[in-house]
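Researcher: Let's try something more involved. This one mixes different molecule types, so please make sure each is placed in the same coordinate frame as the others.
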Amino acid sequence: MKHMQNDENLLKSLALQYVNETGARYHCERIALEQEELPLDRLDEKIYAALSHERAIVKRRKRLMVWMTTAASLLIIIFTASYLFNNVSNEIPEATQIPSPPMMAAEQSPLEIDFVSLSAPEGWQIIYTDHDGDVTIFHLESRFGGTVVVSAGLPIYDLTGSAFWPVFIQDVPAYLLVESTHSILIYEQDGFQFVLTTPYDYRDLIMLAGYWL
Amino acid sequence: MLIILAFDLEADKNTFEYLYEKYKRLLWSKAFDILKDHALAEDAVSEAFIRVYRHLHKIKDPDSNQTIAFLVTIVKNIAINLYHRKNKSLPVDINEHDQVDSFNLEEFIASKEEASQAISLIDKLNEDLKSVFLLKYAHDLSHKEIGKILNISENNVTVRLHRARKKLMQLMKEV
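Model: All components are placed in one shared frame. Result:
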């Protein structure tokens, strides 16, 4: 290894000596040539053309790079959006995607809720009502076969082993029970629209509420 | 005089113009020595300056011996390639060209025994090997840069460098 390094150093030293000596020689030649008439008429023109051509190539390359970068960025954005969309879509229960919620909103008659009594909208019926202190819980069954529990008053708690999530929509508290339902209930109360659904987790619920309201 | 448009930086433009004005005659003369054709010599110089333009950052001091040797190495290489293209069946003897250079090298370096030895050893390499060897060891260029300047592949650079080293080591042992 050391031997090889020595050889390399020797070669470098040799090359530098050569360049120094020939460089000095070339300088002398150059000075001598200053006095000579050389036929360099078209050289300036050729250099001009060659540099213009080179410049055009560099510009084209730069433009191509910009286009490629833009295209790559767009592709990344499209793939990312597509990936996220697919993942989010997969997380939403199938039933929440049908029927079309705006149609549902139009089809459902407003639910009269005054936090004391509840009348079910078309396609829904009240199975029973619980009273637990200040909390009134309305158990609804949808025409799709699922059930939804709507409560009013205090924060909800677990009644059936299912999870409850509090939802606050424009300062009006409502509570949802998630059971093994596959349904959506949309109703209006005092000009506010409520969305009841069967989210698998809290993020889905918020997303749906945000979407529909 | 030269196109200003080609340069993003004022300093680059100035360096390039300086190099061009200072060395164009010498480079033309070197190319002409090989090609014996005015127009082809101009083409060689033009191409050499384009390669300089691409590697302008490698030139630290435009007045140094290294710079002038660098420019001559490039233009000679281009001229030889042009020569081969023009006279496919008549390979040029580059060593002969170097040795019959109009400048009297012996007189110039008479008092410099060591330098003379270095020059005579390296001049025994053919131009293909010599240019790769000098660009590598005297000008510190990478294989990739050498390939671009000489318009050859990196593999070719490696092969030529290996041959140049081997030949030089052999010559040095003989000395």
